[in-house]
Design goal:
By secondary structure, this protein is an alpha+beta fold. The chain has 10 helices and 10 strands. Among the domains are: about 80 residues, Integrase, N-terminal zinc-binding domain (Arc Repressor Mutant, subunit A, Orthogonal Bundle); about 70 residues, Alpha-Beta Plaits (2-Layer Sandwich). Helices cover about 45% and strands about 25% of the residues. A 4-stranded antiparallel sheet has the order 3-1-2-9. It has a 4-stranded antiparallel sheet with strand order 5-6-4-7, sandwiched between helices. A two-stranded parallel ribbon has the order 8-10. Strand 1 and strand 2 form a beta hairpin. Helix 3 crosses helix 5. The chain is globular. It holds the Pfam family Transcrip_reg. One of its GO terms (cellular component) is cytosol. This is Probable transcriptional regulatory protein Aazo_1140.
Length: about 250
Amino acid sequence: MAGHSKWANIKHQKAIVDAKRGNVFTQLSRAIIVAARNGVPDAAGNFQLRTAIDKAKAAGIPNDNIERAIAKGAGTFGGDNSSLEEIRYEGYGPGGVAILIEALTDNRNRTAADLRVSFSKNGGNLGETGCVSWIFAQKWVCIVEGRVNEEQLLEASLEGDAESYEMIAEEMVEVFTELVNLEKLSHTLKTKGFNVTDIELRWIPGNQVEVTDPDQAKSLLKLIDTLEGLDDVQNVTANFEMAENLMAAMA
């Protein structure tokens, strides 16, 4: 099983627990600010913003906080959130695993320093821009939960112009598409009765590094968990492949 899919499943199972952490609230609020800033500050006309709001509500963020984040993104609230930058960092984990980090920060020097320390303490190193990004391609993913009829899923995926889908657990499917087809795909899946529980932009690796050593696996997963725990980090992607039983033991 591909590492990114199994890891996506583990991260999804951790979502309810992780949502209780304050940094997750910060990350989701920042995602709303950026979505509102990059498009119209109206969920009806901004699919990225609508998706960010849905994730925030699912995590239990109060409506007042969501409205405040939208206002900050639109520039009608005040404060210094207009200084938030979207920055991508790249590096290597144990065993040469490529790691891509997406961050939102108001202080790139602080963020880079935090990332450098996290890498060095967990057997990796922060690299230069472009050192690993060539390995990955961006795709939007609709996550479907519940038991599905694969014939019906295939039909709906074709109708929604999906590129592919992957069964990553007994009751979880990921359906991949380009940004231009995302809203159509999401609408089609929901109309056909599929339970779309999340939508996210993900970096998909073109090749994977197999990790078989338990100590290396432990260091790698600890590094990813540490990176994801940083306030400025929005998303972490890696190109590792690991046996399911080894990953489950480490997680």
